[in-house]
Amino acid sequence: MEVESFEDEEVAKLLNYSFVSIKVDREERPDVDKVYMSFVQALYGGGGWPLSVFLSPDLKPLMGGTYFPPNDNYGRPGFKTLLKKVKDAWDTKRDTLVKSGTYAIEELSKALSANAGAEKLSDEISRTAVSICAKQFSRSYDSEFGGFGSAPKFPRPVEIQLMLYHSKKLKESGKTSEADENQSMILFSLQGMANGGMHDHIGGGFHRYSVDECWHVPHFEKMLYDQGQLANIYLDGFIITKDVMYSYVARDILDYLRRDMIAPEGGIFSAEDADSFEFEGAKGKKEGAFYIWTSDEIDEVLGENADLFKEHYYVKKSGNCDLSSRSDPHNEFAGRNVLIERNELSAMASKFSISTEKYQEILGECRRKLFDVRLKRPKPHLDDKIIVSWNGLVISSFARASKILKAEPESTKYYFPVVNSQPEDYLEVAEKAALFIRENLYDEQSCRLQHSYRQGPSKAPAFLDDYAFLISGLLDLYENGGGVTWLKWAIELQETQDELYLDREGGAYFNTQGQDPSVLLRVKEDHDGAEPSGNSVSAINLVRLASIVAGDKAESYLNTAQRLLAVFELRLRELAVAVPLMCCAADMISVPSRKQVVLVGSKSCAELNTMLSAAHSVYDPNKTVIHIDPSSSDEMEFWEEHNSNVAEMAKKNRNSEKVVALVCQNFTCSPPVFDSSALTRLLSK
């Protein structure tokens, strides 16, 4: 629409004569987008972007829709026709339009701000939400290519999280074969995504989604929220399987972010566009131009290794976007190739009569050469906004990687675009990003966040997602070896979130602070889509915080989480697939006692990092890791105030030479253990 309509002189005349045109960046103002997207979805049964909505001067929506062609076509009114009809309706039926818009907003306001019917979620839903959701996903599983549903295929990480959580529950209840079957769906899906063209094999990271069912041809945009969540689920895949394929993909994502997406001060940029110029001086941009290759280009760059590379990545002279009728319906990529892996590494190495290791070395070197050539092309536009919520998601994955990746075998080799980083380097990235937000987007006096940063903080206040996702990231940062400062900040932010967004009467959190009269709806969001909902993440944050602190504060966190989930009981009961992460939260709160791993030892002791790695080496979402240095007065003071039991454990188990680990559950702790292998065995039981 940008090219077809908004750059068209005739459309501009119609717009400028009859309308005041306002372009909204939905990443900058998700609250404004939510109001009018909800209106279009309610009115027409579907939504999407670009979103075009016509408003009255007092901002009530009158009519709207998504994509409109410039002229009447395919049975759809063209944008020019629409503009004339809206102008005519405004001139002749103004009162009717305004009344219907006012009524629509009133009804949406009721529907989108439900209240809890009870103080807590019913026990039945708490116990069954995860399995109900998993069964519904299983019915839509694509056994040929992996993933759930058909084209276009989105990498919705919350689906994977739910299914992995369900597998863990099945194993704990002795249903091993069912658990393995469930888990195999997820691992096959993760492999399909990593092998597909949605994965940028040359530069690392993932594109937004696949237009076809086989993960091949993507919409080439790269979004930060995808990278953070995908890195986390590949880390989970590695914890569960110990297969370095999964850790490799996690590194691939994180190394792409380190190379291309981090500001010098530490904040992490939000996106890279899908389209770019094919060459300097080209008239228009093209989707995927930066990422696709002709067979001749590969021959020229790779020389003697071109044939090996082309066979590995299914490169053809005629172009390779032919695996599905959906891959390239308009023949835009004729003669072009989107790299995809379709064969096993070992089989391909055998075919070329070389070792698998040598084969991987050749591929890595080929990717490096193509990367260097690609750098000379015009790059897609970098959206250098630094958004708090999305940074929170990525802080989590960098922090977790710093400990989980220590479990890779010492003999593991890495090939471009993966860099041979020490896992601890990733913790530094997470801490720098958190520090950037604290120094640039947080007011120490009011304890409030701003939403985003670009050449300075934006005017937009933070939204629920900013608080919830950042708190989650800070909890992961602390649990994976960051200082207690990050835990303190997470607790402070939770207090501010409760003050600004919590509906103390009705339960759950609104998405906005409700102080801007121009934003007509204050919504309690529950949908776990491309990003999880702020309410789902908040419910899990509250459960986690309740297992860290003690006393009245812990009870208050749990009560808030219980009422939050009760607000969405109907949704959990009737449409669990819309809220997979909330289903996990519903189960977490029903777990009688969350496991706590308490590590007591000096921060200067090298063994602490090894023990932290062991603490995170077993997949268990219902586990909290606490580490405390009894020689630190700051840490001891914090724990004396927030959980004296932890402070007491630190005093009793102080050992100047060793790190002491205790695993506690149901108010009892294991005998202390002193080495990482013993801790891993204890957690694996």
From TrEMBL:
Span of the signal peptide: none
Alphabetical list of InterPro entries matching this protein: 6-hairpin_glycosidase_sf, 6hp_glycosidase-like_sf, Ssp411, Ssp411-like_TRX, Thioredoxin-like_sf
Spermatogenesis-associated protein 20-like TRX domain: residues covered: 1-108
Pfam families: Thioredox_DsbH
Source taxon at top rank: Eukaryota
Official protein name in the record: Spermatogenesis-associated protein 20 isoform X2
